[in-house]
Write a structure and sequence with these properties.
heterotrimer; A alpha+beta (862); B alpha+beta (292); C alpha/beta (220); B: 292 residues; alpha+beta; Heat Shock Protein 90; 2 domains; five-stranded mixed sheet; two-stranded antiparallel ribbon; 7 helices; C: 220 residues; alpha/beta; Rossmann fold; four-stranded antiparallel sheet; 35% helix
Chain lengths: 862, 292, 220
């Protein structure tokens, strides 16, 4: 049926009612601002971090485009470039690779690229411009640094370029350069179209029909879609739509697929979202309720003159909406500001990005999400007061001033206020417990086990791939040994290989890791789906073979291993016996939270040599018929070792790259070099130094790694300690901000409840005063009332914090090696005096303000 | 959509019907059109009945007017012959022997009674005529800002002769020279005179009548206080009724229509009249409220 | 023709020994255009009766018929809408919506109903009640008498079937009371409204055309 039109009246009532009680509703707006501040900070930080991780992945991948086709001809490029569903279509043409001697360790590729393409690959020159003339070139600062050429436009650069089967040498002029990212797979060398046309003219024959596998002169086309959902499906459709050949080489940017936040962070965000919603609910609900109750006569009156329940609900919801409309944008603005301040601190600790770290990266979804959650909280909070307003009975309104309990006394808002204050205290306590449990020793021990550790710069960067594990040559090690003050030093060598288990060993291995279920657990932790776990398991049982991370260690490094079990039952490794050459130590099959022995001390195991001298090539035929040459060590000698001990290799020593099916094997330095070739470089060097010389050695290393060999970097206990303190600082800052906002909410809730109850009872108080109760006595009475909240909040927060501490917090810290759980109620106890003071001051101030009116005036108040 | 249109149309139909301006918008095969015609028919018949009612009222007024007019001559004659009768009896009484004097005395009393009843009848007919004209709207009460002193002075002047006979003093307090209210001078004077007349009637000889004028935010109140018996609580609600006369005052003159008329007049000019019962004060008090 | 009929109204609270009969078998009827006062001492059940008549409260038994509609048949929002169309309320404590202007208060029941205000009628009401100059102010700025006049205007604005006044002068001094009552009476007459007023004051009751006495829940 057609409804009568009364929207305007409802709006008018809603708005005028709010205007009349501006102050009350301002408090509500403030509450919404705080809530929305919490949400938008969380979302902006979380979202920026996800974006940052995504961008870092893109940098690794080398582009932000959704997908690309490789090795196209110009005709093929033109076939797709105008597709209406594609955005930012751009191409580059491969010319070759940088082959200068100085670039040996820095893989570089030479292209002609469109501006858009360079931008999408994050390689657009930050200084200068893209090359135009034949002899112009754009390079990354990393390449320039390798070549020893200063970052200045106009510098002449001589490059040796490998173009298919020839190498040409050419003198370029630097027309621009960009900030290279050390973790990206290849550094870009951009040349002009003119250069490309001369040296790598565009191919016209489609790649599958070409006689030779020559990629030069072929188009790599990158493009994006309207959004990043189901890129693969969209590419399939694109192929069908444009009719480009079915076997085109497709590259999908996996940054879009994998840029999910890790589960722990997601859980933290979820918990925080819930806490924020709860905190927001507590205050918005409470204040809304107070406002509704104080307006209840008005609502009853409206009902008497014929306002329906639905209309009353509309009035209240309209108010909620107006409050949200004012509060949320302001809160979001503040929240984003806070996020911008927090981000550098947080990003520093968690992210692997090297460029553009800790920047605020906002997008519409983050803003919408924050707004949505804030709004949801407002709506949820307004729901109950809204029902209350609509259900008001018109007859009772005259008497109605406050919720009454069973005995006809004003109902106190214990639950809401106590919970609100407690929430702040509990969060503060938990954050403090977490931060104070952050063990310096634990963290530092985890990150570094010697005074210094020297390794290749990207070795410990989880974002880098193709890690160089033999970067430290023997001369350098000797040089280190010569340094004044070095007390102990040991290189750690590394070779990747395989280990085959014989029948008797495999029975044990199978029992230890397959039958015990550990294998499946680890696979699950690595994110394998159910069916693939079974496949992996079957393959393992069939092949009886594991990847081996073969380490070679000196005495000093061996002494840092965590001994699980030895043949002689001692928990120290007998170096001389181990160094005899007949022994190997084996790691455990493990993940963060569990570990199982693979084999036991006394078992025998055969290890192959991975000396490049024994390397041969084996031809491997892929399922699609194409043939590859793969390196093989099948002809290399194999030596049998007895397992000396089961050990764990600490994080600070190992190669931080992991597979499901792998095992650590540790040989002595001498045995490792004997087996794998004496000229094998070390992965890292661990050393302890005389405390007195620490500074001078630090300076020496700093100098060496910044001027002599920039490929290397070093960690010192000191720098890690600093890093720790900044991590601790981050936790403290974030925790304090969080607790502060929650505390503000809690106190606002308390103050508002107390003040309202005083105003509501102003008549009662005036009456008491009229019959002779002094102001002082009244204040005492009010303070006592506040005291009840205080006592209850104290009890609730202490009990809940304790429970939380021994359950959730303890469980959480178990999984994190650098955290030590410890029980504390310190922050609550420290906060109590402040809260106690406020509990006294707020009612007293409210009363004093009220008592400025004369008793008679107050008695007259309806 | 369609529903909206119909509701809107119906709404308009009602509005125009209320204003008396309804005409059918169009004639077609729609049911709405049929409804309009029916609606017009209904309005027509109700207008007709309204008109009949109006005519009826007019006839009634005419009838009363006729009574008033047609009774005038016989009344005048009755009056004249009664006068003659009185005069002759007076002469006869003087010249007749004592034995007959008593009989003449009696006849003289009867004649006086006839005279009195005639005056009452005359007053009654005059009041009823006024009342009927007032109620039928033939004579309109037009309220406009007028001076109160004029009203009170005229009213006092009107009752002065009767008051003087009973030696009753009339005083006015609380009335500024330029105090005004919104009333119809002629009719309100009628009302006030009626009230004053009553006061004079029920006041003991040699008593006092006080006219006190007070003012509220909305009204000017004319309090008329006498020293009579006042009105009982029981009677308070009834005295403004038509032809009501309380038991206690049955012996006094009056036809019981003056207060009713006064109430009608005042309510026509947005004022009202109330009585203060004798439980609240000694003596009678009427208050006439005139809109400012 | 009766605009309001109450038949055998009963309102009982509690049960057993604590049973309170606030209203016990009350029947009455009010004619169109009548000004009836219900008089009784406090606790006589007069307020309860008024609440029943106005559909603010439901009787234990019996029925109330207003403008030929038995309101005990109406529930929730329907009753609410009935109230705003058919009943005008005037309360002792004025009960104006404090946050909106005098004019908005007057037309509120109309607007809630989505009706267009009958401008002439409302102007007339406003003029008669002498509040034309106060239309744009908030109720809190007005004196008690003025507020009650606004309440009368609100009750009259929607041309309801009946106006229920609950001790309309209870919060006013004598002089102002006479103003308000006078206006209630004269406007009731002028706009041909039926008025039922409760009061405990004989003098005030006297203003009505008819007085109904109620004592201990009974009409006497």
């Amino acid at each position: 049926m057609k409804k009568v039109e009364n929207k305007k009246t409802i709006n008018n009532l809603a708005i005028m009612g709010m205007k009349a009680k501006r102050n009350k509703y301002m408090i509500l707006v403030l509450a919404v601002i705080l809530t929305s501040l919490l949400f938008s900070t969380l979302f902006a930080v979380g979202g920026s971090m996800i974006n940052e991780i995504q961008e870092s992945t893109m940098r690794q991948v080398g582009g932000r485009s959704h997908a690309g086709f490789k090795y196209l001809t110009k005709a093929e490029y033109e076939q797709i470039k105008d597709d209406p569903k594609l955005k930012n279509v751009s191409y580059r043409i491969l010319i070759g690779t940088g082959e200068n001697e100085e670039l040996k360790k820095t893989y570089s590729e030479c292209y002609y690229a469109e501006d858009q393409n360079a931008k999408d690959m994050f390689c657009y020159p930050t200084v200068g411009k893209m090359p135009k003339a034949e002899n112009e070139v754009v390079l990354s600062d990393i390449i320039l640094d390798r070549l020893g050429i200063p970052c200045e436009l106009g510098q002449s650069v001589t490059l040796e370029l490998g173009i298919y089967d020839r190498i040409i040498k050419y003198d370029f002029v630097l027309s621009g350069y960009y900030e290279g990212d050390p973790i990206s797979t290849a550094q870009m060398i951009f040349v002009s179209k003119a250069f490309q046309e001369i040296f790598a003219p565009a191919k016209t024959v489609p790649y599958p029909e070409a006689e030779r596998a020559d990629y030069t002169g072929r188009y790599s086309v990158d493009f994006s879609f309207s959004n990043s959902i189901d890129i693969e499906g969209k590419v399939d459709k694109l192929i069908q739509r444009t009719g480009i050949r079915k076997n085109v080489d497709v590259g999908i940017n996996w940054a879009y697929g994998t840029a999910s936040i890790d589960p722990a962070a997601a859980a933290i965000c979820a918990v925080l979202t819930l806490i924020f919603m709860f905190a927001g609910y507590l205050i918005i609900y409470n204040i809304f309720d107070i406002n509704i109750v104080s307006d209840i006569q008005e609502f009853g009156l409206l009902k008497t003159v014929g306002t329906t329940e639905k209309q009353l609900r509309k009035i209240v919801m309209k108010r909620a909406n107006i409050i949200a409309l004012i509060g949320i944008p302001v809160g979001m603005l503040l929240g984003i500001l806070v996020a911008a301040l927090l981000l550098p601190v947080i990003s520093n600790e968690f992210s692997t990005v090297n460029v553009g770290k800790g920047q605020l990266r906002l997008n519409i979804w983050i803003l919408l999400g924050a707004a949505l959650f804030s709004y949801l909280t407002v709506v949820l909070s307004a729901n109950k007061p809204c029902r209350k307003a609509s259900k008001v009975s018109p007859v009772e309104t005259v008497k109605y001033t406050q919720d009454m309990d069973k005995n006809g006394k004003p109902k106190k808002k214990y639950t809401v206020v106590v919970l609100s204050i407690s929430l702040a205290l509990i969060v503060l306590n938990s954050v403090y417990g977490f931060v104070s449990g952050f063990s310096m020793d634990g963290y530092v021990r985890n990150m570094i086990i010697s005074d210094f550790s020297i390794q290749e710069a990207t070795l410990d960067n989880p974002g880098a791939h193709n890690k160089e594990t033999e970067a430290i040559d023997h001369e350098f090690i000797e040089e280190l040994k010569e340094l004044d003050g070095v007390e102990a030093l040991s290189p750690v060598y590394y070779r990747e290989g395989d280990v085959d288990f014989d029948d008797s060993n495999f029975d044990k291995v199978k029992e230890n890791i397959i039958d015990s279920g550990i294998y499946a657990r680890k696979a699950a932790a690595y994110g394998y789906p159910e069916e693939e776990i079974a496949l992996e398991k079957d393959a393992f049982i069939k092949d009886r073979n594991m990847s081996a991370k073969i380490y070679g260690m000196g005495e000093f490094a061996v002494s840092k291993l965590k001994v699980i079990e030895t043949a002689d039952g001692s928990d120290i490794i007998d170096w001389d016996k181990f160094n005899s050459g007949d022994y190997v130590m084996i790691g455990r099959f493990k993940d963060d939270n569990f570990a199982a022995d693979i084999l036991s001390p006394g078992d025998k195991i055969s290890i192959r040599s991975y000396d490049p001298a024994y390397m041969t090539y084996e031809t491997y035929t892929a399922p699609n018929g194409s043939e590859f040459e793969i390196p093989s060590y099948d002809d290399a000698p194999v030596k049998e070792y007895e397992i000396f001990a089961v050990v764990d290799v600490p994080l600070a020593m190992e190669l931080r790259s992991y597979r499901l099916n792998e095992c650590d094997l540790i040989l002595s330095e001498k045995e490792f070099l004997e087996s794998n070739g004496a000229d094998c470089g070390a992965m890292r060097v661990l050393m302890d130094v005389d405390d007195q010389k620490e500074e001078s050695i630090n300076n020496w290393l700093k100098d060496y790694t910044t001027t002599v060999n920039r490929d290397l970097e070093y960690d010192s206990k000191e720098s890690i300690t600093e890093e720790y303190s900044s991590l601790g600082k981050m936790f403290k800052i974030v925790g304090t901000v969080l607790a502060a906002v929650l505390a503000l909410i809690g106190l606002m809730n308390f103050a508002n409840t107390i003040i309202t109850s005083i105003i509501v009872r102003s008549r009662e108080l005036a009456m008491l005063e009229a019959v002779g109760m002094t102001g002082k006595q009244q204040i005492v009475r009010l303070v006592k009332e506040g005291g009840v909240y205080f006592v209850l909040a104290t009890i609730v927060s202490i009990v809940l914090s304790s429970v939380l501490s021994v359950t959730l917090l303890r469980e959480l810290t178990k999984g994190l090696s650098m955290f030590e759980w410890k029980f504390t109620l310190m922050p609550i106890i420290a906060c109590l005096p402040f809260i106690a003071v406020l509990v006294v001051i707020i009612p007293a101030l409210a009363y004093i303000r009220l008592s400025k009116q004369s008793v008679v005036d107050r008695l007259r108040v309806e | 959509m369609f529903e909206n249109k119909i509701i809107e149309r119906l709404d308009k139909m009602l509005d125009s019907a209320m204003n008396g301006t309804f005409v059918e918008s169009d004639y077609d095969e729609t049911r709405l059109s049929r409804l309009e015609s029916k609606w017009k028919e209904f309005l027509g018949s109700s207008v007709l009945s309204n008109k009949n009612l109006e005519a009826e009222r007019h006839r009634l007024e005419q009838f009363i007017s006729d009574i008033s007019h047609q009774t005038k001559t016989p009344m005048t004659n009755i009056k004249m012959y009664t006068e003659l009768l009185c005069e002759e009896i007076a002469q006869l009484k003087d010249s007749s022997p004592d034995r007959e004097k008593a009989a003449y005395e009696r006849i003289s009393k009867y004649a006086d009674e006839i005279k009195r009843q005639d005056q009452r009848l005359e007053f009654l007919i005059a009041s009823l005529t006024k009342l009927s004209r007032l109620e039928s709207g033939t004579l309109e009460v037009v309220a406009k800002t007028s001076l109160l002193t004029e009203l009170t002075d005229s009213a006092i002047a009107a009752v002065r002769p009767k008051a003087d006979i009973k030696k009753i003093s009339i005083s006015v307090t609380g009335c500024d020279k330029d105090m005004t209210a919104s009333f119809d001078m002629k009719w309100t004077l009628e009302a006030l005179v009626n009230v004053l007349d009553n006061a004079v009637k029920y006041s003991p000889p040699g008593g006092k009548i006080e006219i006190d004028i007070t003012s509220t935010e909305m009204y000017v109140a004319i309090h008329v206080c006498d020293e009579g018996a006042g009105i009982s609580e029981e009677d308070a609600a009834k005295i403004f009724g038509r032809f009501y006369r309380s038991n206690e005052v049955q012996q006094e003159e009056g036809v019981g229509i003056g207060l009713y008329l006064a109430r009608e007049i005042l309510s026509k000019e947005d004022g009202y009249i109330k009585v203060v019962t004798n439980e609240q004060r000694s003596g009678g008090e009427f208050i006439l409220y005139l809109r400012k | 023709m009766s605009i309001l009929i109450a038949e055998n109204l009963k309102k009982h609270y509690g049960e057993g020994e604590t049973l309170v009969k606030a209203l016990d078998d009350v029947s009455l009827s009010v004619e169109r255009g009548e000004f009836v006062s219900i008089i009784g001492t406090s606790g006589s059940g007069k307020s309860t009766l008024l609440h029943m008549l106005g559909g603010l409260d439901t009787p234990t038994s019996g029925k109330v018929v207003i403008d030929d509609k038995d309101i005990s048949e109406l529930k929730g929002d329907a009753l609410c809408i009935f109230r705003r169309r058919k009943i005008g309320f005037i309360f002792q404590s004025f009960n104006l919506v404090p946050s909106i202007t005098v004019y908005d208060n007057i037309v509120l029941p109309l607007q809630l109903d989505g009706r267009k205000a009958d401008k002439d009628h409302i102007a007339n009401v406003i003029e008669t009640l002498g509040i034309a100059e106060k239309l744009k102010t908030l109720p809190s700025k007005l004196s008690g008498g003025q507020q009650q006049r606004v309440a009368i205007a609100r009750a009259l604005a929607s041309k309801p079937a009946i106006i229920l006044a609950d001790e309309p002068t209870g919060n006013l001094d004598t002089k102002t009371s006479m103003d308000v009552l006078g206006l209630l009476k004269t406007t009731g007459r002028k706009f041909e409204q039926t008025i039922v007023m409760i009061t405990h004051n004989d003098e005030i009751a006297q203003m009505a055309d008819r007085t109904i006495h109620i004592e201990d829940g009974h009409i006497v």
